[in-house]
Amino acid sequence: MLESLVTSKTRIKLLLKFFSHANSGYLRSLAKEFDESTNSVRVELNRLTDAGLLVSEDEGKTKVYRANNSHPFFDEIKGMVSKFLGLDELMEKIVLRMGEVDKAIITGDYAMGIDSGTVHLVLIGKDLDEEYLAFIIDKTYEKIKRKVEVEILETDPGDIQGILVYGK
Fold first, then answer.
1. Nearest to 54 by CA among 35, 36, 30
2. Smaller CB count within 10 Å for the chain: N or C?
3. Residue 37: left if φ>0, alpha if ψ -120 to 50, beta else—which one?
């Protein structure tokens, strides 16, 4: 869906990163995370900033970017990204019924802006209801026609690369 509206793969990755959760990032970390050149990421960051969709602030010598939540289309873009990921309802149900979910992170192809048909999700929390998770994953497949693969961790190892969709 997003690929037909937005032709730049780098721009899709940035929209997914910034509009799926309150994520922020700086040029070099984004280029490394997306496995893209700093120049292609810089061009798209500038375009999105010029359009008012992103805001930047200096933290020392580093410019940090985040979504502009006061932009008139912020909620609409956030909704489109959430539907693209197919996890808006899944995340709501998981957080309400799974137990103490600390974080949910999308990894793999979807975190890179690629619709491969399989969503990789890492859940971090203690005593999560894995039986309910299996049920909700089956229901999600029926609804969005994407396979969801979930890895459950009790603690955050701190090095998971992906898009934070729930937690801090």
1. 30
2. C
3. beta
Encoded tokens for 123: 């859940």
* 97 phi, psi to nearest 5 deg: -120, -10
Identify the bridge partners of residue 57 per DSSP, sorted by sequence position: 64
Q: What pLDDT, in 10s, does the model give residues 4-29?
A: 445 577 888 888 888 877 788 899 99
Residue with token string 């539907």: 83
Architecture per CATH, domain 2-77, reads as Orthogonal Bundle (1.10)
Q: Is 80 helix (H, G, I), strand (E, B) or coil?
A: helix
Query: Coil, strand, or helix at residue 116?
Result: coil
**How distant, in Å, are the alpha carbons of 29, 92, 126, 144, 147 from that of 152?**
25, 17, 9, 22, 16
Q: Identify the helix (H) or strand (E) that includes residue 91.
A: helix 88-97
Q: Nearest 5°: phi and psi at 144?
A: -110, 0
Q: How many CB atoms lie within 10 A of CB 101?
A: 19
pLDDT digits (tens, 9 = 90+) for 86-104: 666 666 677 778 888 888 8
**Domains in the chain: boundaries:** 2-77, 86-167
